[in-house]
């Protein structure tokens, strides 16, 4: 195994040998960087994405540094493909120690998936909800689930009337709404897992404003291309630093001691008031199961998870 990865404050000491991680959306960007970092820490890595060539390239990189890796393709606009991804992971691994719900999308034009759900909400929330439901019993006793959210969740509240329509569509609002759903999902998952007496942790994370991801998508053209071409921009997070945020929310001493929390800048943070609404989290969980026409995962609800104080 090569030298341990640089830039992973708080987690570079962790030994992940013998552990397995699935990172969705790991053929590029922060997902790819996180996959490579986990490989250097000793983990076996399941790479996911839509592009087979890109996925196999990441697997080659991981194998070059001495890590065990496999690639499983799946299009998150297709719920059957998500279910097949989960089935393949269950068949090809003995268990999962880390599930990073990192894949996401942003769409300037409103449209619905074949399931009749708005695209952004489907890819960013419904798909990871289904994947987590299908893998929850494949997770090890002390596993951790990290869901990639964003500071963009602020300024919106949960509106379940809008998840099956593109009327008056706003790309920015749709993205922000999906990122709010990520935090609510992560909190409700933490509560329900705890109610079953399992020690699985569930946290969400804002990885920073990263060129090519949520930051540049909100900029008028041609600024996204300009930002992506620059190495350093004030207030912008590098891909490597964004990946470090994901790993911090799973591996750091702070993260291993908590569940149901929201991380940013390598610390627990207080998300918006809407993201701390436990009733909204329950309603989101129930509506998600209805949209997927499945029984509610982890049906028993436990006590509320308290966020850090204001």
How would you sum up this structure, described in words?
- The chain is α/β, with parallel strands linked by helices.
- It has one domain (20-292): Rossmann fold (3-Layer(aba) Sandwich).
- Helices cover 40% and strands 14% of the residues.
- The protein contains ten helices and eight strands.
- It has helices at 29-40, 52-64, 79-92, 119-135, 171-195, 214-217, 223-229, 239-251, 253-256, 278-292, and strands spanning 20-23, 44-49, 69-73, 96-101, 139-148, 201-206, 262-264, 268-269.
- The protein has an eight-stranded mixed sheet, with helices on both faces.
- A hairpin with a 3-residue loop joins β7 and β8.
- α3 (79-92) runs parallel beside α4 (119-135), α4 packs parallel to α5 and α5 (171-195) crosses α10 (278-292).
- The radius of gyration is 18 Å and the shape is globular.
- The chain starts with 19 loop residues before the first strand and ends in an 18-residue tail after the last helix.
- The relative contact order is 0.14.
Biggest sheet descriptor:
8 strands, mixed
| Tally of separate helices | 10
Q: What overall geometry do the principal axes of the alpha carbons give?
A: globular
Strand residue percentage:
5-15%
Name the average pLDDT.
Answer: 89
Task: Give me the strand/helix succession.
Answer: EHEHEHEHEHEHHHHEEH
The CATH class is: Alpha Beta
At CATH's second level, what is the architecture? 3-Layer(aba) Sandwich
Structural class: alpha/beta
Distance N to C terminus: 43 Å
How many strands appear in the DSSP assignment?
8
Strand order, largest beta sheet: 3-2-1-4-5-6-7-8
């Amino acid at each position: 195994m090569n030298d341990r990865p640089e830039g992973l404050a708080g987690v570079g000491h962790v030994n992940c040998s013998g552990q397995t991680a699935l990172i969705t959306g790991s053929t590029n960007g922060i997902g790819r960087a996180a996959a490579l970092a986990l490989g250097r820490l000793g983990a076996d890595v399941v790479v996911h994405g839509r592009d087979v060539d890109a996925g196999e390239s990441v697997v080659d990189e991981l194998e070059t540094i001495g890590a065990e890796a496999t690639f499983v393709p799946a299009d998150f606009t297709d719920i059957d493909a998500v279910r097949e991804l989960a089935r393949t992971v269950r068949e090809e691994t003995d268990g999962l120690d880390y599930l990073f719900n990192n894949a996401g999308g942003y769409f300037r034009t409103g449209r619905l998936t074949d399931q009749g759900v708005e695209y952004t909400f489907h890819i960013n929330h419904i798909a990871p909800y289904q994947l987590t439901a299908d893998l929850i019993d494949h997770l090890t006793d002390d596993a951790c689930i990290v869901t990639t959210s964003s500071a963009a969740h602020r300024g919106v509240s949960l509106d379940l009337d809008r998840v099956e329509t593109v009327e008056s569509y706003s790309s920015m609002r749709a993205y922000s709404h999906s990122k709010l759903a990520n935090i609510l999902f992560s909190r409700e998952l933490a509560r329900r897992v705890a109610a079953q007496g399992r020690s699985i942790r569930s946290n969400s994370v804002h990885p920073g404003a990263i060129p090519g991801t949520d930051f540049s998508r909100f900029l008028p053209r041609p600024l996204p291309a300009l930002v992506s071409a620059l190495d350093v921009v004030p207030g912008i997070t590098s891909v490597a630093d964004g990946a470090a945020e994901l790993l911090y929310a799973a591996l750091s001493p702070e993260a291993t001691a908590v569940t149901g929390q929201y991380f940013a800048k390598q610390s627990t943070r207080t998300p918006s008031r809407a993201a701390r609404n436990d009733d909204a989290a329950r309603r989101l969980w129930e509506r998600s199961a209805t949209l997927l026409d499945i029984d509610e995962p982890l049906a028993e609800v436990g006590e509320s998870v308290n966020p850090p104080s204001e």
